[in-house]
Hints:
The chain is mainly α.
Amino acid sequence: MKDSIHSSHNLPSRRTLVMAWALLMVLTIGTMIAGKVTSAASLGLIWTAILLAISWAKARTILQVYLNLRAAPRHWRSGFNGVLVFLLLVIFGLYALGATGIVHH
């Protein structure tokens, strides 16, 4: 635990920050692949779900490490995660409604 958080300030260590940055870079590449950045075609529901799952992992990493939410009380962590999941589900739901033709532009 000492390696991941400085005890005097409850801040992430340099190693933790670098590891989080590396994870974000890998997830960004995953976002590019899932988002099919070189294609003009629609993603479809499966690839959109994968893209949003990667986005969730990136957002959680930023919240937990860079904004140091992991040092916050549990209810704050749960609240932020709940709002994040809710927003991603709304985005997916709206995309699904449009992709299935239930809602038209």
